[in-house]
Amino acid sequence: xxxxxxxxxxxxxxxxxxxxxxxxxxxxxxxxxxxxxxxxxxxxxxxxxxxxxxxxxxxxxxxxxxxxxxxxxxxxxxxxxxxxxxxxxxxxxxxxxxxxxxxxxxxxxxxxxxxxxxxxxxxxxxxxxxxxxxxxxxxxxxxxxxxxxxxxxxxxxxxxxxxxxxxxxxxxxxxxxxxxxxxxxxxxxxxxxxxxxxxxxxxxxxxxxxxxxxxxxxxxxxxxxxxxxxxxxxxxxxxxxxxxxxxxxxxxxxxxxxxxxxxxxxxxxxxxxxxxxxxxxxxxxxxxxxxxxxxxxxxxxxxxxxxxxxxxxxxxxxxxxxxxxxxxxxxxxxxxxxxxxxxxxxxxxxxxxxxxxxxxxxxxxxxxxxxxxxxxxxxxxxxxxxxxxxxxxxxxxxxxxxxxxxxxxxxxxxxxxxxxxxxxxxxxxxxxxxxxxxxxxxxxxxxxxxxxxxxxxxxxxxxxxxxxxxxxxxxxxxxxxxxxxxxxxxxxxxxxxxxxxxxxxxxxxxxxxxxxxxxxxxxxxxxxxxxxxxxxxxxxxxxxxxxxxxxxxxxxxxxxxxxxxxxxxxxxxxxxxxxxxxxxxxxxxxxxxxxxxxxxxxxxxxxxxxxxxxxxxxxxxxxxxxxxxxxxxxxxxxxxxxxxxxxxxxxxxxxxxxxxxxxxxxxxxxxxxxxxxxxxxxxxxxxxxxxxxxxxxxxxxxxxxxxxxxxxxx
Length: 714
Hints:
- The chain is mainly beta and 714 residues long.
- The protein is 12% helix and 33% strand.
- The chain has 9 helices and 45 strands.
- The two termini are 46 Å apart.
- The model has no long low-confidence stretch (mean pLDDT 95).
């Protein structure tokens, strides 16, 4: 934001003020790394540096300035003498020696702009970001693994997950517009730091399989072999009789059996099998054999999450002043753009003016009019004579919105107060730094004298809300006389602050704040910004699938869940923010909610499960080249998060169990092997059970059997 206000600056183009600041910034970062000896040539871990990010996607909007800026950025980076290579992501015109790299869901067909540059994938999207008012996107691991295997099949050098570890946009740090506080991203490690299964385990197995081919991958370019329609192999030769192979079925619906090197291989649609010795298929991207978690949410209300309610009578509140509240307001003709006015010191800007209604003789009745408000974004609360009359908002893709609201006006002067709200600053796209916010047209109609355009009227402005100015989010204000306490907490009121002291659940793990009963606002714990919340904004009721088909090209809207629900109701509170005794929770509610139903959750364990058949491959890490003995058959492998142990086995059946994780039931062929599994697993952090009749018995000869297990870690 400070950069935006430097005179004469234009971001990310051939502009002298911007280039001056960018060179200072690059030099500062590179200097810090050198001081700590962090580059590889200094014995440190940094092997790669990046300048700019996905500029190629927007370069065309900058005209002749775009390519000139790219050339300058490259030269400036190289002159920093990092002694490691520089990359530019999604930048096909990256000049030598910078390496242009690929970002996307698939990069197997990507080719760098010079044969001397390695094929690198800097952002492989494991899911997608979350926005208020949208369903929750996710990416099936079968498709993600397929994309990675195809990349290495086609000669890829380096691949990086975006994100491998999800996170949280604490406070007001979320991008915009309307990007949610959670940046979980459906990542292998979730927003709270818990392992997301089977995504984490299936990718671990994938990389173990690729690692077993490493000597071959770095010894030769791949040889392509067509195996049929949408069927192919790529073979890497280390010597004339020593090779590794990737067998791919890139058809989006048809499974296939292929012949390769005199052997037969079954390839499910949209899958890759990895053969480190050109014979043994040790891994297939569509065959998930790693364990799963019963719930897809770390804090699902099961036996593994503990909820702590907050006593409704313990809340205090402060009702905020509507409109101009302080002596630092100012007046200006016309409607000012919001971001240039607030300079991002607050999400809020008050716009206040008056509407005069002719008193028209003796008649003292209210008049009904129509208020037409058009805003660049992102949301607005409208008050007439200090009473809330309407709330309007945009969405992530279209932040601007219009409101048409019936209003009742008294004879004489009436106050119109508009509280315009930001929900995250734009941080992507061409000229993102000059995209504005706030109302730009306000018209009143239906008062009998035609339309009254207030857009160029005199307006009074105030940055921020009264509660922000008072610092009600701060720990030091917890005992202030501003707060009111009583038996009946006001609910469903706009512009109200709530506070409460609570005891955190025991343990050392992260907490989740359940704000499902609130409307829209911000939350703080012990003065730390938890983030923006907006459970009142429900996603569309259509567009979700219970079981998304991983086959075929993925995009950000292909696999979605929780349609018709809020994007986010649980908010991450790191344990490091929590005091051993009392903790302060403050909520700033903007549109109306009920704090008496707010609760705090913690995770006390996890329910895990696995189902493996006799026909499944052995674990990848049990394979050794030229040794049939160690390739010793499929196993159910279970493991808990560090610090937890397997404490009970709720289901274990060898036969043809029915159902899925969390709802297994015995099939027609059923051998109850709970006691066998308990002997191996109870009291351990991890265990493995061979899926063989030698271990588990054979009640149904000549039937292909599976072992299904459900266990509790705590």
